[in-house]
Amino acid sequence: MRFIDEYLKDIKDRGLYREFKFFSGPQSKYISIRDRKVLLMASNNYLDLCNDDRLKEAAEAAIRTYGVGSGGSRLTTGSYELHDQLEKKIADFKNTEAAILFNTGYMANIGTITAIADKEWTLFSDALNHASIIDGCRLSGAKIVVYKHCDMEDLQKKIKAYEGNKRLIVTDGVFSMDGDIAPLDKIIALAKENNILTMVDDAHGTGVLGDNGTGCVEYFNFKEQVDIQVGTLSKALASEGGFVVGSKSLVTYLRHKARSFIYSTALSPATIAVSLCSLDIVKNEKNKRIRLLENAQWFQGELRKLGFRVLESNTAIIPLIIGSAEKATKLSEKLFKKGIFITAIRPPTVPEDTSRLRITLMATHSREELKHVLDSLKEAGMELGII
Ligand code: PMP
């Protein structure tokens, strides 16, 4: 098909062609790619739990007891006691009335937004929201009003311009490619003042932010002030699956209305068992996230000292902005040759001319390893004229 060939040639010419890097072993801070051991600096496995023995044992035990496949969607033949336990545990962890599991965070966002909004609704959406929020908004058929990234003046202006009683503000809690935290205190104040519902996707805050690691709502010291909270078990919690937490009635409503929940096979028992176990680890091992966030602060400061352009971040995500997609790819390749894996993030994932290395830290990275990364980045950055 010619249009496909033309498209592929075009993205190759523009440095936007994407390829897989296949891992031949478990994911930890070191991974094996084609028999090479490389230091991973780009994973969402923030607490380095993907290869944790406790989680692997939990999965094995669940497989022995329940088998492997779940056999059906949740409302037909795919609900196990484990699903019930996990939903209760997540609600408890997030300090909300109830929780509902989805197969991914992506499905949680599209399922929830489309269950709530239709063409009578107005959705106020941050310009840098995750693709799954954008897709959910589009699929819903609602009026979408995009406000400038974290810009409360712009949001306020737009709220005034679009009156109505069916309105929702939807935002990432932690922005996945920028690492900054949404100003939830101000967003919630505006929402309350104007009688608007709020929805926060805390995929990257869950397990990382807040005294108990429950995410950005705790980080801001809010309780039950966000109407709909989305999260994922696939990042700090080292498992798979998305979830929504909120009131009992919200959760019951989603069980009946969210199509990505209703029409998809339930998560397998092993996956659920891993999530149950990793929630305990997050609760009990606070030292992991303290170290993670301390390292992230230190590391981004050192990058700036070297002359790199780094966005301000209070999370484990450190965006090193390069600009051109080609240069970002070259920097990533040079680092890979030096045994360091950091993916180049390019359009359409990020806006044109803001291609970047999205560096993410893990709780287990040592200062020595991070210093080695800084030395390598300095060398490669100078070779490419970035610094
Ligand atoms: N929301 C945000 C902010 C994300 O970054 C991601 C993952 N990239 C998702 C949702 C989707 O989560 P999942 O990977 O579990 O589908």
From TrEMBL:
Gene3D superfamilies: Aspartate Aminotransferase, domain 1, Type I PLP-dependent aspartate aminotransferase-like (Major domain). SUPFAM superfamilies: PLP-dependent transferases (SSF53383). Pathway: Cofactor biosynthesis; biotin biosynthesis. It catalyses: 6-carboxyhexanoyl-[ACP] + L-alanine + H(+) = (8S)-8-amino-7-oxononanoate + holo-[ACP] + CO2. Its cofactor is pyridoxal 5'-phosphate. GO terms for molecular function: 8-amino-7-oxononanoate synthase activity; pyridoxal phosphate binding. The modification N6-(pyridoxal phosphate)lysine is found at residue 235. Its EC number is 2.3.1.47. Residues 37-377 form the Aminotransferase class I/classII large domain. The keyword Hydrolase does not apply. InterPro entries: Aminotrans_II_pyridoxalP_BS, Aminotransferase_I/II_large, AON_synthase_class-II, AONS_Archaea/Proteobacteria, PyrdxlP-dep_Trfase, PyrdxlP-dep_Trfase_major, PyrdxlP-dep_Trfase_small. Keywords: Acyltransferase, Biotin biosynthesis, Pyridoxal phosphate, Transferase. Belongs to the class-II pyridoxal-phosphate-dependent aminotransferase family. BioF subfamily. Homodimer. Catalyzes the decarboxylative condensation of pimeloyl-[acyl-carrier protein] and L-alanine to produce 8-amino-7-oxononanoate (AON), [acyl-carrier protein], and carbon dioxide. This is 8-amino-7-ketopelargonate synthase. The gene is bioF.
